[in-house]
Write a structure and sequence with these properties.
Strand content: 15-25%
Number of strands: 15
Radius of gyration: 21 Å
CATH topology: L-amino peptidase D-ALA esterase/amidase
Order of helices and strands: HEEEHEEHEHEEEEHEHEEHEEH
Amino acid sequence: MKIYVISLVIFSLSTSILPNVFAQEQRGRIRDFGISIGILPTGQHNAITDVSGVKVGHTTLIQGADIRTGVTAILPYTGNIFQEKVPAAVYVGNGFGKMLGISQIEELGNIETPILLTNTLNAPIVANALIDYMLSLPGNEDVRSVNSVVGETNDGGLNDIRGRHIQASHVIEAIHTAAAGPIAEGNVGAGTGTECLGFKGGIGTASRKLPSSKGGYTVGVLVQSNFGGVLAVNGAPIGRELRNFYMKDPKDTYKADGSCMIVIATDAPLSSRNLKRLAKRSYIAFGNVGAFSSNGSGDYSIAFSTHPDVRIPHNSKDMELTTIDINNNDMSALFMAVWEATEEAILNSMFMAEDMKGRDGRELKAIPIQQTLKIMKKYNSLQHDKLPRAIEK
């Protein structure tokens, strides 16, 4: 037996030589398993980076037995966002959180830095590094005030959160490595040590593309999932069937608190007012997957527009600002898109996550995909992609 184990190490635990008892369940995004949400088509990568200009970078810290954390950076576009700000808005689902920068976003309706995600106790460290980064950019030599935007969730279940292991170099790495295209999901960046609906959470993303008759706009969402509830997937009661949910018995140790950060990008030309309306609709998805926003859950949605014609110059010679906005009556398709993309992003964060052991030897299991699919078949919740979809017109 000892020789056999050594052989496994030599062959990098190849599943071709493992007996079934050692086989690892294959992970993937929900669409890899015949699960789809809603009716709208996705963008090219089904990610927030399908919104032109948006880039995402991660720094992941998995060290020793108890460091399980990281940083995720979302850049609205390539360039100096302080000098050319983008309209933005925040919707607070439940305010038990430590998000930085929301009062100025609420007051002025824009953001002037990338959006950074991390863990609760590292938020001030990340904000400080983000300020250093912004002050160092060419053109910002005379800047005396920066509204750094940093969201967080508490990963203290798996991570030595009191150690505050994130350093400025990790923040800069996440920003500098940010890229367009496919995004790493699951146990990466700010989602490294998170927990969601009784299973391993993480980073997840998705997007929706509107038909040309509705503007042809793209809505992309990225989530940092770390909250409790009773998991449901396309209406199938997964958490209940797997006996993994809040208040399942008197000795319940289920983690109901935690928080969720939802970052929404769109290329539709929206004002901060309409962006806040858009951010509100993401909360529909939050409930659809079984979340109820417990007392200790800080749940925030932040939305921004990348459309070049709605940017706000830091310095302008003109007293009046001319901009454009979508008509109220034409917002409905965008509302639908953000609901669908948010729900899929949350589920992708769980399906892409893997089992993880961390602080004090605690182990958190990822959602068991094959068992989940079996339950979904029982409730006729699979292959929704065969239903009629929105027609391009």
